[in-house]
Design brief:
- The chain is mainly beta.
- It folds into 5 domains: 120 residues, no CATH class; 82 residues, Immunoglobulins (Immunoglobulin-like, Sandwich); 75 residues, Sandwich (Immunoglobulin-like); 77 residues, Immunoglobulin-like (Sandwich), CATH 2.60.40.10; 151 residues, Immunoglobulin-like.
- 10% of the residues lie in helices and 43% in strands.
- The chain contains 5 helices and 36 strands.
- The strands form 9 sheets. Strands 25, 27, 28, 30, 31, 32 and 34 form a 7-stranded antiparallel sheet that branches. Strands 22, 23, 24, 26, 29 and 33 form a 6-stranded mixed sheet that branches. Strands 4-3-6-7 form a 4-stranded antiparallel sheet, with no helix packed on it.
- α3 packs antiparallel against α5.
- The longest helix has 16 residues.
- The N terminus is likely disordered.
């Protein structure tokens, strides 16, 4: 499913026509009439047809089965064939989508599909098992198995099961056909093994990988995804995947679709529960979960767990300078700052580099018997605050890792125990940049502090004619979808010249502070 807001290539006249259509649709509700929807079962397939009259054009149709969208169709469509439907009772719904994103329910129908002699099951090793029974009394000479209409097996007539060991990714439709002694072919049955349609969660050591790329999304305008762990939002992103380092224990994850930048309106679209086993035994360097810091930045904590008291330590934390910029290192409220009755270590070196941070410390250079004792869970050593690099996008996930390749000479990753180096295990971490704030006027693409027709013209020039970019990209995002395309120019023209065109979201109609996801330099506020 794709987002509602598409980039149409329109001239100014066509743009105003879109605004007029928008007004016609929102001014009067479309009126379905006649027999709205009908469903017909044919074998394992279901045909859905509808006949509706409208007073104005629509954007398209959405077909749903059992509450889940399964197809998005053009406005000219009048029927849809759902193939290889699983056995059981199913309810189909047809919904019309207006150009403004509003939805109109047209009708629904309920059908029952039966067991047509074939069964498909996804196996834990990734293979697919297809089994069948011949439901007619006739002599069979061969069995043919197909995947997505391509033959993958020719089997003896006495065969009633086959395993597809390399089905490949995505949705696969299997068919079984029987060939008679006279060369005639008849269909035994068909079935579909779809991709997993919910939130897919997998555990890799101390990391949890989330994937919701296969969840159907609504056509109505939405802002971004919120990632929740154990009921709390831990990240916001427009990507369809996220990796978290939650610590040991059982954790409940959920993905919510956010419909505005304030986060007030959320719909949970998937959830899962995972169990993360304990950390690796022995000495360890690891990170806390990325935490919100001052606007536009994020903060992580470097932690150590040792099996014996350590006299000192050194390490580097590497990041990609294209996406992350280390800004500062703080020792406030850390085990490092509490050493020597709050005086800190007698030797301390912290360096901020373009591609990371290095740290080295000796607890007490004179009394080498003084150590940082083994912790119950982990001693916080330092807090690193990150900002966005030149390609960093707030809300995206960026990895960090302990590294021996930083500094000149390179700083080793070691603990010092009884005068000898001990190499700790390390776990990677992740930084999620929080959106910053700036003062701007949404829709003011040319940065003159006024929203008028010159702003959509400026946006079109930037997109298609090679003109200078907007001084504040966030201001040019007139419809607040966190991307700049031709829809922003259309949105601005609708408001300027349409009777009912909605205004740009805040900050509007006056300059004011607002979130920055795309970047914002100086402008006329």
């Amino acid at each position: 499913m794709h987002q509602l807001r598409k980039a149409w290539t329109l001239g100014l006249g066509a743009t105003l026509l879109v605004a007029s259509i928008h007004q016609a649709i929102t001014a009067g509700q479309p009126e379905p009439g006649g027999d709205a929807i009908g469903c017909t079962v044919s074998g394992a397939d279901v045909s859905i047809a509808w006949s509706v009259d409208f007073i104005a054009p629509i954007h398209g149709w959405v077909i749903a089965r059992d509450g889940q969208p399964i197809a998005e169709l053009e406005s000219s469509a009048k029927e849809y064939l759902d193939r290889a439907v699983p056995a059981g009772e199913h309810t189909y719904e047809v919904t019309a989508i207006n150009f403004d994103g509003s939805a109109i329910h047209i009708g629904a129908c309920t059908v029952r599909t039966g067991d047509f002699g074939i069964d498909c099951a996804a196996l834990p090793d990734g293979a697919v098992r297809i089994s069948w029974q011949i439901l007619i009394d006739i002599a069979i000479s061969a069995i043919i198995v197909t995947r997505n209409d391509e033959v993958i097996a020719n089997l003896p007539p006495s065969t009633f099961e086959f395993q597809d060991t390399s089905p490949g990714p995505g949705r696969n439709r299997y068919g079984v056909e029987a060939e008679t002694a006279g060369g005639h072919i008849f269909v035994v049955g068909a079935c579909t093994i779809p991709p997993e349609r919910g939130l897919i969660c997998s555990v890799d050591g101390m990391l949890v990988h989330l994937d919701w790329s296969r969840i159907p999304l609504p056509l109505s305008p939405w802002s971004h995804f919120a990632v929740l762990r154990d009921g709390a939002v831990i990240a916001e992103t427009r990507e369809t995947g996220y990796t978290d380092s939650p610590g040991p224990g059982e954790h409940l994850y959920a993905i919510a679709l956010v419909f505005d930048d304030t986060g007030a309106s959320k719909d949970v679209i998937g959830s899962c529960t995972v169990t993360v086993e304990g950390q690796p035994a022995g000495d360890l360097l690891f990170f806390s979960t990325s935490l919100a810091a001052p606007a536009g930045t994020s903060e992580v904590t470097c932690l150590e767990r040792s099996t014996a008291g350590i006299q000192g330590w050194s390490f580097g934390v590497k990041s990609d300078p294209a996406f992350l910029a280390p800004l500062s290192v703080s020792l406030e409220d850390t085990a490092t700052s509490r050493l020597n009755d709050g005086a800190g270590p007698t030797f301390l070196s912290v360096n901020i580099l373009p591609d990371g941070v290095t740290m080295a410390a000796i607890v007490d250079e004179e009394d080498t018997g003084d150590t940082l004792p083994p912790p119950d869970f982990g001693h916080p050593l330092a807090h690193i605050r990150y900002g966005a690099g030149p390609l960093g996008v707030p809300g995206d996930v960026h990895p960090i890792a302990y590294s021996e390749g930083l500094g000149d000479p390179a700083v080793a990753v070691v603990f010092v125990v009884n005068g000898f180096e001990v190499r700790p295990a390390t776990l990677g971490g992740f930084v999620v940049l929080e959106p910053g704030e700036a003062k701007y006027l949404r829709g003011d693409s040319n940065g003159d502090g006024i929203f008028d027709i010159s702003d959509p013209v400026h946006t079109l020039g930037y997109l298609f004619l090679g003109s200078a970019p907007p001084p504040c990209l966030e201001a040019a995002d007139a419809n607040a979808t966190r991307e700049i395309n031709i829809a922003d120019a259309v949105y601005g023209l609708q408001h300027l010249f349409g009777e009912n065109g909605p205004p740009p979201p805040p900050p509007f109609p006056e300059c004011g502070p607002g979130p920055v996801f795309l970047g914002c330099g100086a402008q006329g506020c």
